[in-house]
Amino acid sequence: MKALVYDGVENLGFRDASMPIPGEGEHLIRVHAVGICGSDMHAYLGHDDRRPAPLILGHEAAGVIEEGPDKGRRVTINPLVTCGTCAYCRAGRENLCPDRQIISMPPREGAFAQYAAMPERNLVTVPDHVALDTAALAEPLAVSWHAARLALDALHPNMDRRALVIGGGAIGLAAALALAAMGVDHVEIVEPNDLRRTYLKDRCGHQVIAEASGTAPIVIDAVGYVATREVGSRMSDPGGVIAHVGLGEDRGGLDVRRLTLQEITFIGTYTYTAQDFRDTAQAIFDGRLGALDWFESRPLAQGAAAFADIRAGRTAAPKIILDPWR
User: Fold this and answer.
1) Domains contained in the chain, CATH given
2) What is the pTM of this model?
3) Buried b (16+ CB within 10 A) or exposed e, 222-242
4) End-to-end alpha-carbon separation of the chain, Å?
5) How many Cβ atoms sit within 10 Å of the Cβ of residue 267?
6) What is the pLDDT of residues 199-252, one digit of tens each?
7) How far is CA 309 from CA 2, 34, 56, 111, in A?
């Protein structure tokens, strides 16, 4: 099969790779769409020791079961593989499983390839009226769905349901969509990139600003850099909630003194539970997250150029989805 392989810092090669061999209880998936995630970019830039080269990246995928009695079933992939038996898994908090694995991280190769192998429990059937490239958005949307749900669960019931989302990439946009679907009436996105800000305003119809200018009860940091944590610390209302989902930088920026004195809740959020993923997929299928037409599609063979364009800030769309068969 053909695959896009991470060979080192800012170095991707499109070449032949070994076919995945499904284990017990797994299916071979013919991948039709796979998105480029911020974590793929972190690996590409050499910022993620968990993803050493050479490695097939990519974990936001949808496709069709290739063989067996379910051959032809259209599915979107939950890439988080967990044990199913630990206390966290039994409590429905699979994302905290100590033995969790995610495709695109050893020992599991990713989905920037023509085929991938996944357990049955990680697959959600996609109805015929939903395109597979749209279904591939379930993973990034689930990340934001999880963050929005935790933020709303932590918000004091007497506080306004208003939100400030830092970052207008796919996770930030998805957070705005999830918050709106959960009944938050006013959501503002902070996005400094002029090209992307214009795209979000004109194409997606969201309220987007270059710099944060007012506080909010809910702040979602979809970037995770020192500067964005500084903004989140400053722009959260007293008694408010900050949900931190970005993984840009490890340390710095958080004003712990203000968080303490103003009783601001800070929540680190990682991926999603299996139920969050299923709920997000159903929201996509039901049309509750909007048209979801804010991505750009390119051939997997042009994946290296797509990464370079994202790196240089030349892409207006919040998401690029790669097609292994174009």
Assistant:
1) 2-137+292-323 (3.90.180.10), 141-268 (3.40.50.720)
2) 0.95
3) bbbbeebbebbbebbbeebbb
4) 13
5) 15
6) 998 887 789 999 998 999 999 999 999 999 999 999 999 999 999 999 888 899
7) 22, 17, 19, 20
